[in-house]
Structures are given as C-alpha cells and as structure tokens.
Amino acid sequence: MSSAVRTARMAPRLSALVRPAVARATPSVCQRAAFSVSANRFKSEVIKETEVPVSIYSPDAKGVASGNSDHFSIPVKARQRAPEPVAEEVDEEVVPLEEKVYSTLPKTLQKMSLYGKVVIITGGARGLGNYMARACAEAGAKAIAIFDANQDLGDESAAELHQKTGLPVSFFKVDVRDGHAIDAAVKNVVDLYGAPDVLVNSAGIADSNIPAETYDPAMFRRLIDINLTGSFLMSQSVGRAMMAAGKPGSIILVASMSGSIVNYPQEQSCYNASKAGVIQLGKSLAAEWAKYNIRVNCISPGYMDTALNKVPALDAQKKIWKSLTPQDRLGNVDDLNGLCVFLGSDASGFMTGSNVIIDGGYSLY
C-alpha cells in the first residue's frame, strides 16, 4: 500500500488519537533495568520445536470408541511465505441437496441447509444474486422464485437454474419500486409453492465517482427508491405472506460495508446513505417482527469482483481498493453464498437484527 493512500485513509482516525499531554512519572533506572532483563529473558524463551508429538485415538470398525491408539511425531518445517491468493473459477455445476442425502446428515448440518424451503431472490438474474440463487438450490430449497427487472436475463437465468437442478424455478419481471407488482408476484409464489420461507433482497444499483455538490437530485431519488424503498416494499410484502401463513421466516437484506464506512477514493454519498438506510431498516424490522418469528438480517459485502466492476475505467481504483483490503483481493462472486445459506437456515434461528460485514477485512483499517 502506498504511504500516500494509507495516510489519506488513516488521517481522520489518527487525528482522533491525539490527546492533551498528561504529566507521567518517569521510570527509575532500576525499573528500566528490570524491564530490560525481563524482555531479554522472554526473547530467549521462544520455543522452536523440531518435531510435534501426536496421539491418535480411533474408533473400531463399528464406529465405537476403543482403546486403539497410535503415537508418532511429525517434523516441523520453517515457515514459508504464503502464496499470493488467486481468484478461482467458480464451478458452474449446481447439484441440489436431495432427500436421500439430507436424511443422512447429522442434525447440525441439517439445520444449516434450506431443505424444503421456498426462497424468493430479488436481483437474481445475474451477479451476486444469481450465485446466491444457485447456493440456495444446492442447500436444498424446495422452489426458487427470481424477481428481476430484466426480462431476458431473468428468463434465461431461471431456465438455466431449472435445467441444472430439476427444481421448480420461476421468474417474475418485477421492479422493486412497484409495490402493487410485488404484491401480485408474491401472491403467485404462494399459490405455486406455498408461503415463502426466505427472502434474499439482492436488487440494487450503484452510482459512484459523483461529487455530492454536483449530484443530480433526480438520480439521488432513483437510487434511494431502488435500494432502500425497494428493500422495504419487498420485505413488507413477503413479511405479510409469512404472517398470513403463520410460519417462521428469514429475510436477508443485501446492504454494503458502505453503509458503515465511507469509501475511498471514490465519491458516492447517495449509495452510502442508501445502504446505511438498509441496515437500519433491517434492525427495525427485526425488532418489530420478532413476535411473528420472522428474522431479519443484513449482509454487507465489501468490494466484489462482479462483471460490473470488471471495466477498464475502474482498474486504477481497484488497485487502491485491494491495497486497502487486508486479504489483498476483491471478493469472488460466490463469496456470499455460505453466509446467505446460513442466514436463511434454521442454524441462525437465534440471530436477528445483525449486520454481517464480509469484506476481506477492509473495514478493519
């Protein structure tokens, strides 16, 4: 990371650390000498084993604990520099969780699945939403409904997911700003598959590199309407369906780390404000709907390596984003999948009102 970038990023935080000078007692010569001896002693006590003793206790052929044991040592090698992380290609195969496999899973893993659940995913025609839809299929969803404003991509994605999994998959051309269209689509999902168990609200847009003083108010209203109002309208409609069915449910709102921090170097006040609103909306709905056993949580991704970010115009900024991220990379398109499945599953049954940041450590600095 360049010193200029780190200084710009850390300056506001470092300034907060400045405090008025306070008179302190000066350590005596004896105290300093004692500390020096102690520090040297600890340096000399660093343990550097050349081998590690191991004891293995194994069950018998029937899986029952026994007295079988094995004892040996493994050599210790000097640490080597970790290799640079490489973005892996995502396997396009989607294998759904079948009943015969689910029934053999331990109770903990069963709770971590979405087996038998009806899932609605907005923004599921492409990008992160589409990969989360695939993950829900692999986790055992009974049926998946994709809501998206793009007719062609939505139809294509739904057909592809159905062909790969054999699961019931439907597509609804829905603009998340249209409350009446949302209500009609949710009602049809209930008629087709039963009340939804999980909502993943991934629909959203981003405006970036626009100074606040020149931001078009019409653009501001449009972004807020899609990102924040759309999250509310989807949650409201799906929440009503869950309440009417008298069944528990999980609502997952895709927010952003930008709802908790201010990004650098790009200017994007409107996007940041919209995602901060989504986070607070999630907390508020979680508090209101806990009595209905409906949980509401947020996923806040960091910089993700989606198709929208793979443009030459962003190359310079992406270098800065990576340099400010401890893992030194952007998120892969499937890096949200596991968290999405967990939040939709019964394994997170005591979790509501949380905002889970998944950003490679970016917000640590």
UniProtKB/TrEMBL annotation:
Gene3D superfamilies: NAD(P)-binding Rossmann-like Domain (3.40.50.720). It holds the Pfam family adh_short_C2. Signal peptide: none annotated. PANTHER family: SHORT-CHAIN DEHYDROGENASE_REDUCTASE SDR, SHORT-CHAIN DEHYDROGENASES/REDUCTASES FAMILY MEMBER. GO terms for molecular function: mannitol 2-dehydrogenase (NADP+) activity. It comes from the Eukaryota. The keyword Zinc does not apply. Keywords: NADP, Oxidoreductase. The keyword NADP applies. One of its GO terms (biological process) is mannitol metabolic process. This is D-arabinitol 2-dehydrogenase. Belongs to the short-chain dehydrogenases/reductases (SDR) family.
